[in-house]
Specification:
Elements: E1 5-7, E2 24-30, E3 48-55, E4 61-62, E5 70-71, E6 83-88, H1 101-107, H2 110-121, E7 141-144, H3 145-153, E8 162-169, E9 172-178, H4 181-188, H5 191-207, E10 208-209, E11 227-236, E12 239-246, E13 249-251, E14 264-271, H6 276-295, E15 301-307, E16 312-320, H7 321-327, H8 334-351, E17 362-367, E18 372-377, H9 390-396
Parallel strand pairs: 5-13, 7-9, 7-12, 14-15
Antiparallel strand pairs: 1-2, 2-18, 3-4, 3-11, 5-10, 6-16, 8-9, 8-17, 11-12, 13-14, 15-16, 17-18
Helix pairs in contact: 3-6, 3-8, 6-7
């Protein structure tokens, strides 16, 4: 595959790579011609679930299965996973306790780092090198699934820019998606958009129970802070990754621990598709992100609730994740998505000095207009703290 690294010689003042005061590298990763990524699908091993943790309603870390939820489909569900329902997604929205996005932004990778320290102490053979005195990680990259989903979709992204913060420590690179605070504030100022963002959580409340014996309770107050997170390990093109992923539900009858996520499902809502234009829009945009989010963790099924503009879900459908890929092949290609993701990881490894310390940070920026990813040393303006907190660094540099 032709490498996409290019030297930057000139650039317009509109290009964010040339903002005054930022020291930029001479290399960029180009997406001008995504057909350059249209090679064979890269090596991708089945994601292995190496552990999990819960975040309670106060977003406190819990080393347990307390926030694991079980899928409870209505009894009239057909063998194909479809049925008629009436779920009111606006019910209880006025009393919802929403996530503190700023707190999540400031916490960054901390919950995942806490899991790593816990497993390092337990000498987890899939994560740490138990033959090495300081037991470094047996992976090259650590991040969350959302970042990987974003990367996989980038070849077909024409509107949204993104920024990734990275640092290298010991033998590993840590990645974090820096979200636009101004964009989030604008989103919160739109009451309708804000309400619709809660509908997905409410949908889960109609279909998920707290145990395999319990039933869903959509009457209880909705708190969107609680999460159950699986931690997975895979290899893309020979590069081992460790990443956390919030998961929606596991099928009834499944019990932890879980070797993989084959018995998990993703839950989604979507406006009723009533014409060919809406169907084409779904296949072109949403299907790719749904596929990427599930594929990267090995979840095979998505339960979709079709709703109207008033938040009433009237139809459930169970989608096969691989079928999503096949039916959308005219709009996007999974091999292009994954080859780009692999090439980006290689680009990151090449850009960050091998001997850099955990206090050194690097910024990778995708500009949708110019179709390039650039990188630079981070001068402190992107974040108010280090990506890796001192308690993590000190613990990893000490004997267990």
């Amino acid at each position: 595959m032709k490498r996409q690294y290019q030297d930057v010689r000139t650039g317009s003042t509109r290009d964010p790579r040339y903002r005054k005061g930022h020291e930029r590298s001479g290399k960029v990763l180009s997406l001008h011609d995504i057909e350059e990524f249209n090679g064979n699908f890269p090596e991708f091993t089945r994601p292995k679930n190496v552990g999990s943790f819960s975040l309670d309603v106060c977003r406190n870390y819990q080393n347990d299965y307390s926030e694991l939820r079980y899928l409870c489909m209505p009894p009239e569900t057909s063998n194909s996973g479809s049925c008629k329902v009436r779920f009111d997604l606006r019910k209880g929205v006025s009393t919802v306790i929403e996530k503190d996005e700023e707190s999540i932004r400031q916490k960054m990778l901390d919950d995942l780092l806490m899991f790593i320290l816990q497993e390092r102490k337990a000498e987890h053979p899939s994560i740490v090198n138990c033959n090495y005195p300081l037991k470094p990680l047996l992976v090259e990259f650590v991040c969350y699934r959302g970042l990987l989903t974003m990367l996989i979709a980038t070849p077909y992204e024409s509107q949204e820019n993104w920024t990734i913060l990275a640092t290298r420590f010991q033998n590993c690179i840590y990645l974090w998606h820096l979200k636009d605070r101004q964009k989030r504030n604008g989103f919160n100022s739109n009451p309708k958009q804000q309400e619709m963002s809660i509908w997905g959580f409410k949908f889960e409340q109609y279909l998920c129970a707290s145990s395999s014996e319990a039933s869903p309770n959509p009457e209880e107050q909705l708190n969107t802070n609680a999460e159950f997170c699986c931690v997975l390990k895979t290899r893309i093109g020979g590069h081992p990754l460790l990443y956390g992923a919030e998961v929606d539900a596991v099928t009834k009858g499944s019990q932890p621990p879980f070797a993989d996520l084959q018995n998990f499902v993703e839950l989604k809502t979507n406006r009723h598709i009533s014409n060919e234009r809406q169907h084409a829009s779904f296949k072109r945009f949403k299907s790719m992100k749904w596929w990427a989010q599930s594929f990267i963790v090995g979840i095979p099924k998505i339960v979709v609730g079709y709703r109207d503009d008033d938040g009433i879900v009237s139809q459930l459908e169970t989608m096969d994740v691989d079928h999503l890929r096949k039916q959308s092949n005219d709009w996007w290609k999974s091999n292009i998505c994954m080859n780009f993701c692999l090439q980006f990881l290689k680009f990151v490894k090449e850009c960050i000095p091998k001997e850099s310390n955990p206090n050194a940070h690097f910024i990778f920026e995708f500009d949708a207009m110019s179709r390039v990813i650039s990188f630079r040393n981070e001068a402190g303006e992107a974040s108010s703290r280090n990506l890796l907190p001192s308690w993590y660094v000190q613990s990893m540099e000490s004997h267990v």
